[in-house]
Amino acid sequence: MMAFVYALVLSAVLCFLFRRVGLELDLVDRPSGTLKPHEKPISYVGGTAILLALVPWLIQSPEFFPAIIIMWALGFADDIRSISPKIRLTVEVLVGFAVAFIIYGFSTVDSIILSIIFAGTVNAYNMVDGLDGICSTNMIVFGVFAFFTGFVPLMSLAVAGVYAGYLIFNFPPARLFMGDQGSYIAGTFVGTLLIQSWGSQNFVRIAAICWPVVLDLFVGFLRRSIAKKSPFAGDRDHYYDKIFKLSGNRKKVTLLISTGIALSYAFVGAFIPVIFIPPVLLAASLVQIFSLGSLHSTT
Length: 299
Prior knowledge:
Blueprint: H1 2-24, E1 28-29, E2 42-43, H2 46-58, H3 65-80, H4 85-104, H5 108-128, H6 134-148, H7 153-170, H8 179-196, H9 201-209, H10 211-226, H11 239-246, H12 251-271, H13 277-292
Antiparallel strand pairs: 1-2
């Protein structure tokens, strides 16, 4: 548990410092229409603070370090100068392939499947980072419940602590954004765990714990396809956007409800028998999709 506390404190200190650095260097996200509705420029280098806060644990986990560094660099480049979806997706797939190769060696079919899972997970966490506190609370929940599965427990607690430290500055109204840097780190950590647990019961449990984020990716792709839009286009119809509108545009209420959803799925993944997880996820997913009208595009 001390890993969580140390990570939280280190992350909070670094976020405090990097918020100021971002403002001084003009590394800020400026308000722009419905996709960027904040009222003033906000520093987006929280992801770099997250990376540095994770370093003490990353150096003890070589299976995570290279991939997280590469994906952080991709995210930072994308934050500074927008990179095309094709280039981003290519890098994500290649990194996923490399992670699978390092862990399992060469296996054409498995490597292709795992690289797609990895890229999908990275994109899922990137897309869920669209409202103050949503991505970070999902990562805190994920890290804590992944700890209870017994799968890389120390690293899981450290990740939860780091995103908890960041949440202090991203709690609505946000004073700091993680940028693509931070969401790519989140997706890389979860994607690597999915690759590591491939073929075991832990894969089902890890997938269930991160399911609200992955479900949002699937539903978003389907929703945009129905509306004849690019699947990679941004919109304001994610599950947290739907909750935001239903809550009367109150960010704190939205964050509370979204955290409750994440906790519900995480409890299923961590504690119920594996054989019951898929049907429970299916039923819960259908309830969530149709109750929120997630397939209906409004933007």
